[in-house]
Please model this.
Amino acid sequence: MNGVLVVGGGVLGFCSALALQDRGLTVTLLDEGAAVKPASWGNAGHIAVEQVEPLASPASLRAVPGRLLARDDALSLPLRDIRHWLPFGLRLALASRPDRFRAGKAALKALVAEAMPAWEALVSGLGRPDLLIRDGHYVIWDTGDSAARGLARLERGDHGTARYRPLTAGEGADLARLLGRVPAGAVRFLGSGHIAGHDRLFDALRGRFLERGGVMLHGRAVGLPLAGGRARVVVESGAELAPDMVVMAAGVASRPLMEGLGHTVPMIAERGYHLHTHPGDWPADLPPLVFEDRALIVTRFRDYLRASSFVEFSHPDSPPDRMKWERLRGRIRSLDLPFALPGAEWVGCRPTLPDYLPAIGRSARAPNLLYAFGHQHLGLTLGPVTGRIVADMAVGQGRGPAPFDLSRFG
Ligand SMILES: Cc1cc2nc3c(=O)[nH]c(=O)nc-3n(C[C@H](O)[C@H](O)[C@H](O)COP(=O)(O)OP(=O)(O)OC[C@H]3O[C@@H](n4cnc5c(N)ncnc54)[C@H](O)[C@@H]3O)c2cc1C
Model:
């Protein structure tokens, strides 16, 4: 088989495939076509260029007990999944040491700084600037106290290329109209953005990929055997594919495949939940709203409205916690949002490594194997910039950026 085989057709897989085609490479994309749409379709759509600090930080670690006890259940560690989250948690605690946090932040911040330019180049290359809406987002607090604490946190924090400011009178009036009250506190972020819609985006990515001669294969990769020091891909049907190069971009499912080759990949399924409904009266031009006290983001896409929340350290195959959708409805009701309930339910996995940095690099076991997964809360944001790095590695000899190399896990 000639050319590059990309395993995984989520945002990381498609962005890598298109960037590889930009370099003139022949690309085949293998995807299992999961029955439930993966995270690339289930996310909140936010291009979160303000999130430059890895969540493995001394501050996040200090906040864990409070978040676990909080009534809103924003963070959960289900007992049935203890064998998954306990070892992950120990690694996370080590990665949160101040020195590791500082180094991780420098690496993540540099990557996130390239996210928006890479998105702009992607949508302009597709001839579809309408797919990216660069109008920032709002952060809203419920009470004067939480607003004061939130603002103090923002002042201390680093927001990368994004910035925030108080609301203008017009923005305050827009929010008051939507919420039926003046929020106790709110700021407007600028520099961030959101996508116009998931199917719109993926239709455009797939269309361009096929137009350039890309081939899509339907199947599930089940192994990465080595032959003569080079990685091949075994598909569930029994077929063994021997491309010139493989790019592993299968989200959380990348773990067993890479571990089969001897890599250490302590990745967990950090699950999130959403409710999805028709846009109703929600203003079409309102940027995403982050209700910080409720750990809730509501995004108005062109054709739908979506409310997303929760961090649940779990296993991809564990049954969903149905109460989470009920809690999400409870939050929407208590905020009195014009969000048509009950809404369609979805749960899916953020592929998260314990230091909250992605894995982007070249395998030390097989030089023809590149990887791009583990993008946690930022996979949509970092898809296009990661694709470029993958393409650079594919046409060069390098291992990729050292902070994102899998060898950091031993
Ligand atoms: C509730 C929620 C909200 C989020 N909000 C945001 C946000 O606003 N902004 C942001 O930047 N990020 C957000 N994220 C994170 C983001 O969605 C993920 O980081 C990103 O989608 C990961 O993309 P991926 O391509 O690595 O993996 P996935 O989206 O999981 O895609 C993996 C692909 O690989 C395929 N696959 C899996 N196993 C195999 C196999 N064995 N063989 C072949 N194919 C296989 C799957 O079918 C799938 O198509 C959110 C996540 C969640 C859960």
The two ends are 32 Å apart (CA to CA). The longest strand covers residues 268-277. The first helix runs from residue 11 to 22.
